[in-house]
Amino acid sequence: MIVTIDGPAGAGKSSISRRLADELGFEFLDTGAMYRAVALMGLRAKIDWDDTDRLVEFAKSATIDLSGRAVILDGEDVSHEIRSQEVTQVTRYAASNVGVREELVRLQREFAEGKDVVTEGRDQGTLVFPHAECKIFLTASPEERARRRVGDLARRGETVDFEDILQQQAKRDEEDTQREVGPLLKAEDAVEVMTDGMSEVEVLQKLVGIVQRYQ
Ligand code: C5P
């Protein structure tokens, strides 16, 4: 069974999706981590971001292991580094690159082959797994999402301004929804869950209930 969870940045998808996968005994696929890992490779190699072919080469040559709790890029644990502000800012170059998307979508389908999976991203229910048994669109208001992001970064020791985060988020939302390839879109058959004012446990319970309807 495939459960897709799509939605905008900061809707709390990653932590909730992982907990949902644990609860159901399913594998978990964090597709944002894959785009982040490719962007990190570009950042480390100090590439010219206009050099789109170079990023495709990175995506093709990388070994990204998402089978455990950590994100392992070519044998190195980059779980923490890929969530930094610096990587977040440049991930758009990987996400808007047609060749990178083709390669990562191929890897995502390969990962899910023959397994029960909760997969999280922007295009999972629309493009990557259009025949998924259960599709969820997880969202929250821009202010609530920015508040959560500020909290996440504070826990990492990064101090940021709320208004700056709100602005960056609006830019990311626009890029995510306007992108020509794999844009953020609610699948027609997805169940929308608006999480404003809900605790993580409440959201989790709600999602478990939704998945059970399709099992
Ligand atoms: O979900 P997360 O914030 O980790 O995603 C990082 C970036 O990767 C997002 O801003 C989005 O542009 C991109 N992404 C994507 N397609 C996915 C998952 C993430 O384009 N399936």
Describe this structure in words.
ATP binds at residues 7-15. One of its GO terms (cellular component) is cytosol. The protein has 215 residues and is α/β, with parallel strands linked by helices. It has helices at 13-24, 31-44, 52-61, 85-95, 98-112, 124-128, 142-155, 162-178, 200-214; strands spanning 2-6, 27-30, 64-65, 72-73, 76-77, 117-121, 134-139, 191-194. The longest helix has 17 residues, at 162-178. It is globular, with a radius of gyration of 16 Å. The termini are close together. The model has no long low-confidence stretch (mean pLDDT 95). It binds cytidine-5'-monophosphate (C5P). Cytidine-5'-monophosphate binds next to helix 2, helix 4 and helix 8.
CATH architecture title of the largest domain: 3-Layer(aba) Sandwich
Mean pLDDT rating: 95
Shape: globular
Distinct ligand kinds: cytidine-5'-monophosphate
Q: Figure out the total of helices.
A: 9
Considering DSSP H and I runs of 4 or more, what fraction of the residues is helical?
A: 40-55%
> Which structural category fits the helices and strands?
alpha/beta
Q: Strand-residue fraction?
A: 5-15%
In whole angstroms, the N-to-C terminal distance is 8 Å
Tell me the total number of β-strands. 8
Q: What low-confidence regions span 5 or more consecutive residues with pLDDT below 50?
A: none
CATH class label of the largest domain: Alpha Beta
Largest sheet: 5 strands, parallel
Indicate the CATH topology of the largest domain: Rossmann fold
Give me the CATH superfamily of the largest domain: P-loop containing nucleotide triphosphate hydrolases
Oligomer: single chain
Report the radius of gyration as a whole number of Å.
16 Å
How many domains comprise the coordinates?
2
SSE string: EHEHHEEEHHEHEHHEH
Family: Belongs to the cytidylate kinase family. Type 1 subfamily.
Keywords: ATP-binding, Cytoplasm, Kinase, Nucleotide-binding, Transferase
EC number: 2.7.4.25
InterPro entries: Cytidylate_kin, Cytidylate_kinase_dom, P-loop_NTPase
